C-alpha cells in the first residue's frame, strides 16, 4: 500500500519515486490550497514534497488524512516552488508520530493536529472524519475542532519552522527538539508529556512558547547543558491540573503558570526546577524540590510554597549549587540586572525580533516579590534556607517557616532583602530545630520594614539564631514577638538587632534572647535597637537572659540609641543571669539608652545576677541613660544587683548613671538601686551612681549598698546652677523588688558593710 495516497476528493495527485512522494494540484481557493489523503506516512529517509508549480500563489496548505491510520513520519516534509513563505496544516484524527528522523523544510508555519476538523471564519469546516468532497473556502482558519477522544501526537525527532510551530492533540508525547522562529504552541486536551529520553530535549520559540495540557503538564528534561524550554517572548504553562516542571526555563519575557481560566496554576517539581525570566514570573502554589527563580521583573506566587527536598541534579557550575544541593532551599530573586539571553537562531523568512517590556505586580514597583506562606523542610536533614531578594518591594502575606525533619537537623536561614523598596511580613518567620541550631532571620530594606507576626529562631538543643532588621532609609515596625532562644541544653540565645537610618523604630512586641536549660545554660544574646535621624518607641519588653536549673551563663547586653532623635520606652528591659541550683550564675548585661533629643522611660530596667541555691552570683550590669540635648524623664525603677541567697558569694552591683548635660533629670518618685548581697557569704561592692544634669534633678531614691563590702560612690553633677529636689541617697533599707522571674524579691540591707 502506498504510504502517501490521495483519497480522490480534492484533485490531489501523488507521484511516488521509491520512498519519496511529490504532491501536486489539490483544490485552490484564494490563497488556500486543500489536499486530502487516505494515508500519509513517510518512511525513514523518505520525503513528502508539496510542489506548488501548478499553484504558485497560495500561502497556506490544508491537508487532511481520512483513512483512519496513524501517520508515521520518519522523513522530510517540505514545500517547493512557492512564491511566498508557505504554511502547512497536517490533520489526522487517527494520530501522528514524528520519528527520530522526522524534519520540516517549509518557509512558513506548521500545524500538526489530531483534530476532527479545521474551522474557518465564514463557518466552513474542513473535516477529516468523512471521505466526502469537502466544502472549501478562502477564509482564514480560526480554530481546530477536537473530537471527544482525540488521538495523540508523538515527537521523537527535530522539527524546525521559520515562523510558528503548533502541535495539538489529545495527548502530546514530546522527546525531540521543537524550534519555532516565532510562536511555539504545544496543546493537549489531556496531558503534555516532555522527556529527554532520545537526547537533550528543546522547546524553543523566537517569540512566545505556550504549553497547554488541560489536565496535566509533565516535564522531565534534566541533565542537559542548556535550558530545555526557551522563549524570546512569554513562556506560558497552562493546566487545570498539576504543572510538573523538572527542567530549566529561560524566557526573554514573562514566565506564567496558569489555569485554563487565567488564574495562577499549580507548580510541582520532584528534582530540579530553575526559572530565568527577562520579565515577570507568576505561579500559584508550588510543592517540590529546592526552587530557584531569577527575574528582571517581579515574582508573584499566589499560593503557598512548600519545599520538601534538595535539588540533587543542578549543574555544579550554578552559583547556588551548594545551597540548592544540600538543603530544601528556596531562592527568589526579582529585579536582577540581567539574565542569560536565550540563544535563539535567526531563522530567516518570517522571523522578526520582538521587544518585550517587563510587567509589574499591581500597585508594586518593578522587581517586586509577592508570596504567601513558605515552608522549607525535608524528610531528612536540615530545614531549608529561604532567600527573597528584590529591587522593589517584598510582600509576604503568610508566614515563613524553616524546620528540619527529625531531631538532629538545623533550622534554615531566612533572608529577605529589598534593595530599593519596602518589606511587609504579615505572618512572621520561624526557624526552629530540636537538637540542632536554629537559623538566622534577616530582613534588610532601603525603605520601610513592617512585621505583623513574630520572628522566632528557636532551638531546644542548640543555639538560637541571630535576628536582624535593617533599613537604610525607612521606618521599622515590629508588632509581633522577636525570639531567639535556646531551651533545654547549654546553647546560647542569638543576638537581636533592629537598626535604621533616616527612620523611626516602633517595637510593639517583645524582643527576647534567652538561654534556658535544665542544667547549665548558655548566654543570652545581645539586643540592639538603633536609629540615626529618627525616634524609637518601645512598647514591648526587651529581655536578654540566661536561666539554668543548675548554673547559668551571662545575660545579654541591651542597647537602645537614637542619634538625632528621642527614645520613648513604656516596656520592661531585663538582662539577667539566674541559677536555680547550686551552681554559679553569670553576669547581668549592660542596659544602655542613649538619645540626642531626650529620653522618656516608663518601664523598669533590671540587670542582675541571682544564685538561689548556694552558688556564687556574678556582677549586675551597668544601667545608663544619656541624652545630649534633651532631658531624662524616668517613671520606672532601675535595679542592678548581685544576689547569692544561700551560701555563695555575690559579685558587684552594676553602675547606674543618668546623663543630661544640656537638660534636666525628672525621677518622678522612682528608685535607682545597685547592691551586692550575700547573706551567708562574701559580698562585693555596690555599684556607683552618677547623676549629671544642667539645672535640675528631682524625684529619685538612690540606694547603693553591700552586705559585707562597700557601698558605691554617688556623684551628682550640675552643668549650670543645679537644683535638687525630692532626692534621697541611702545605703541601708529593706528593699522589695518585683521581677517576672522572681516575683517579689525582699532583700534586707542593713547592719553590715560600709557607707
Task: Describe this entry's structure for a reader.
This protein is mainly β and 755 residues long. It has 1 helix and 76 strands. It has a 46-stranded mixed β-sheet that branches. It has a 20-stranded parallel β-sheet, with no helix packed on it.
CA-based gyration radius: 37 Å
Could you give the distance between the termini?
Answer: 120 Å
* Beta strand %: over 45%
Sheet with most strands = 46 strands, mixed
Task: Give the CA-based shape.
Answer: elongated
Number of helices: 1
Number of strands: 76
Helix content: under 10%
Class by helix and strand content?
mainly beta
Mean pLDDT: 91
The parts where pLDDT drops under 50 for at least 5 residues are 346-358
Topology:
Elements: E1 4-6, E2 12-17, E3 20-25, E4 27-29, E5 32-40, E6 47-51, E7 60-65, E8 71-73, E9 76-80, E10 87-91, E11 96-98, E12 103-105, E13 110-113, E14 117-120, E15 125-127, E16 141-145, E17 153-155, E18 158-161, E19 165-169, E20 172-174, E21 177-180, E22 184-188, E23 191-195, E24 202-205, E25 209-213, E26 216-220, E27 229-231, E28 235-238, E29 242-246, E30 248-251, E31 255-258, E32 266-269, E33 274-277, E34 281-283, E35 286-289, E36 291-295, E37 299-301, E38 305-309, H1 321-326, E39 330-334, E40 369-371, E41 374-376, E42 386-390, E43 394-396, E44 400-402, E45 414-418, E46 423-425, E47 429-433, E48 441-445, E49 449-451, E50 455-459, E51 467-471, E52 476-478, E53 482-488, E54 496-501, E55 505-507, E56 511-517, E57 527-532, E58 536-538, E59 542-548, E60 558-563, E61 567-569, E62 573-579, E63 591-595, E64 599-601, E65 605-611, E66 623-627, E67 632-634, E68 638-644, E69 656-660, E70 665-677, E71 689-693, E72 696-706, E73 714-718, E74 723-730, E75 733-739, E76 743-749
Parallel strand pairs: 3-6, 5-7, 6-9, 7-10, 8-11, 9-12, 10-13, 11-17, 13-19, 17-20, 18-21, 19-22, 20-23, 21-24, 22-25, 23-26, 24-27, 25-28, 26-29, 27-30, 28-31, 29-32, 30-33, 31-34, 32-35, 33-36, 34-37, 35-38, 36-39, 37-40, 38-41, 39-42, 40-43, 41-44, 42-45, 43-46, 44-47, 45-48, 46-49, 47-50, ...
Antiparallel strand pairs: 1-5, 2-3, 4-5, 14-15, 14-16, 75-76
Amino acid at each position: 500500500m502506498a504510504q502517501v495516497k490521495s483519497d480522490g476528493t480534492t484533485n490531489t495527485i501523488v507521484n511516488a519515486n521509491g520512498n519519496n512522494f511529490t504532491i501536486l494540484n489539490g483544490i485552490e481557493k484564494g490563497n488556500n490550497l486543500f489536499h486530502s489523503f487516505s494515508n500519509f506516512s513517510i518512511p525513514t529517509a523518505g520525503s513528502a514534497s508539496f510542489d506548488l508549480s501548478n499553484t504558485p500563489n497560495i500561502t497556506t496548505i490544508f491537508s487532511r488524512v481520512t483513512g483512519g491510520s496513524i501517520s508515521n513520519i520518519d522523513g522530510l516534509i517540505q514545500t517547493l516552488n512557492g512564491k511566498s513563505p508557505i504554511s502547512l496544516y497536517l490533520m489526522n484524527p487517527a494520530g501522528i508520530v514524528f520519528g527520530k528522523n522526522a524534519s520540516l523544510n517549509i518557509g512558513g508555519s506548521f500545524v500538526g493536529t489530531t483534530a476532527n476538523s479545521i474551522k474557518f471564519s465564514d463557518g466552513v469546516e474542513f473535516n477529516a472524519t468523512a471521505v466526502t468532497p469537502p466544502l472549501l473556502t478562502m477564509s482564514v482558519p480560526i480554530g481546530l475542532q477536537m473530537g471527544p477522544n482525540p488521538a495523540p501526537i508523538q515527537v521523537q525527532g527535530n522539527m524546525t519552522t521559520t515562523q510558528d510551530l503548533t502541535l495539538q492533540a489529545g495527548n502530546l508525547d514530546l522527546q525531540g527538539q521543537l524550534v519555532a522562529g516565532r510562536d511555539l504552541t504545544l496543546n493537549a486536551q489531556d496531558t503534555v508529556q516532555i522527556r529527554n529520553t532520545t537526547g537533550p530535549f528543546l522547546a524553543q520559540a523566537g517569540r512566545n512558547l505556550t504549553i497547554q495540557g488541560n489536565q496535566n503538564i509533565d516535564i522531565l528534561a534534566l541533565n542537559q547543558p542548556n535550558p530545555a524550554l526557551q522563549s524570546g517572548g512569554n513562556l506560558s504553562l497552562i493546566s487545570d491540573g498539576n504543572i510538573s516542571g523538572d527542567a530549566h526555563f529561560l524566557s526573554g519575557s514573562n514566565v506564567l503558570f496558569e489555569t485554563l481560566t487565567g488564574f495562577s496554576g499549580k507548580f510541582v517539581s520532584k528534582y530540579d526546577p530553575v526559572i530565568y525570566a527577562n520579565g515577570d514570573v507568576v505561579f500559584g502554589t508550588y510543592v517540590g524540590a529546592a526552587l530557584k527563580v531569577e527575574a528582571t521583573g517581579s515574582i508573584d506566587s499566589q499560593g503557598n510554597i512548600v519545599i520538601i527536598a534538595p535539588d540533587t541534579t543542578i549543574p555544579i557550575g550554578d552559583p547556588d549549587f551548594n545551597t540548592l544541593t544540600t538543603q530544601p532551599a528556596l531562592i527568589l530573586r526579582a529585579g536582577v540586572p540581567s539574565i542569560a539571553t536565550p540563544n535563539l537562531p535567526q531563522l530567516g523568512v518570517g522571523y522578526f525580533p520582538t521587544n518585550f517590556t517587563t510587567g509589574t505586580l499591581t500597585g508594586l514597583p518593578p522587581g517586586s516579590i509577592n508570596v504567601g506562606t513558605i515552608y522549607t523542610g525535608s524528610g531528612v536533614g536540615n530545614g531549608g534556607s529561604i532567600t527573597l531578594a528584590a529591587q522593589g518591594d517584598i510582600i509576604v502575606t503568610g508566614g515563613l517557616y524553616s524546620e528540619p525533619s527529625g531531631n538532629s537537623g538545623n533550622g534554615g536561614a531566612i533572608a529577605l532583602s529589598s534593595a530599593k523598596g519596602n518589606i511587609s511580613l504579615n505572618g512572621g518567620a520561624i526557624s526552629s530545630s530540636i537538637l540542632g541550631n536554629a537559623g538566622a532571620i534577616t530582613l534588610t530594606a532601603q525603605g520601610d520594614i513592617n512585621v505583623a507576626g513574630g520572628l522566632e529562631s528557636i532551638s531546644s538543643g542548640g543555639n538560637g539564631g541571630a535576628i536582624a532588621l535593617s533599613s537604610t532609609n525607612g521606618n521599622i515596625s515590629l508588632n509581633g514577638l522577636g525570639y531567639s532562644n535556646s531551651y533545654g541544653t547549654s546553647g546560647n540565645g542569638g543576638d537581636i538587632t533592629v537598626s535604621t537610618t533616616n527612620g523611626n523604630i516602633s517595637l510593639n512586641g517583645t524582643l527576647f534572647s534567652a538561654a534556658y536549660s535544665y542544667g547549665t545554660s548558655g548566654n543570652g544574646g545581645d539586643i540592639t535597637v538603633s536609629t540615626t535621624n529618627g525616634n524609637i518607641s518601645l512598647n514591648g519588653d526587651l529581655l536578654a537572659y540566661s536561666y539554668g536549673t543548675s548554673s547559668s551563663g551571662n545575660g545579654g547586653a541591651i542597647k537602645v540609641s537614637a542619634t538625632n532623635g528621642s527614645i520613648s520606652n513604656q516596656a520592661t528591659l531585663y538582662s539577667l543571669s539566674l541559677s536555680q541550683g547550686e551552681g554559679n550564675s553569670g553576669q547581668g548585661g549592660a542596659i544602655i539608652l542613649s538619645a540626642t533629643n531626650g529620653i522618656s522611660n516608663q518601664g523598669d530596667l533590671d540587670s542582675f545576677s541571682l544564685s538561689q541555691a548556694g552558688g556564687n552570683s556574678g556582677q549586675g550590669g551597668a544601667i545608663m541613660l544619656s541624652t545630649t540635648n534633651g532631658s531624662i524623664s524616668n517613671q520606672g525603677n532601675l535595679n542592678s544587683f548581685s544576689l547569692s541567697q544561700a551560701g555563695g558569694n555575690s559579685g558587684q552591683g552594676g553602675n547606674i548613671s543618668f546623663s543630661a548635660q544640656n537638660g534636666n533629670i525628672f525621677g518622678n518618685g522612682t528608685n535607682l538601686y545597685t547592691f551586692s548581697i550575700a547573706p551567708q557569704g562574701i559580698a562585693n561592692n555596690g555599684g556607683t551612681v552618677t547623676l549629671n544634669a544642667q539645672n535640675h534633678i528631682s524625684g529619685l531614691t538612690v540606694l547603693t549598698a553591700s552586705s559585707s563590702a562597700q557601698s558605691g560612690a554617688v556623684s551628682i553633677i550640675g552643668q549650670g546652677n543645679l537644683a535638687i529636689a525630692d532626692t534621697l541617697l541611702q545605703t541601708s533599707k529593706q528593699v522589695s523588688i518585683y521581677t517576672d522571674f522572681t516575683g517579689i524579691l525582699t532583700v534586707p540591707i542593713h547592719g553590715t558593710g560600709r557607707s
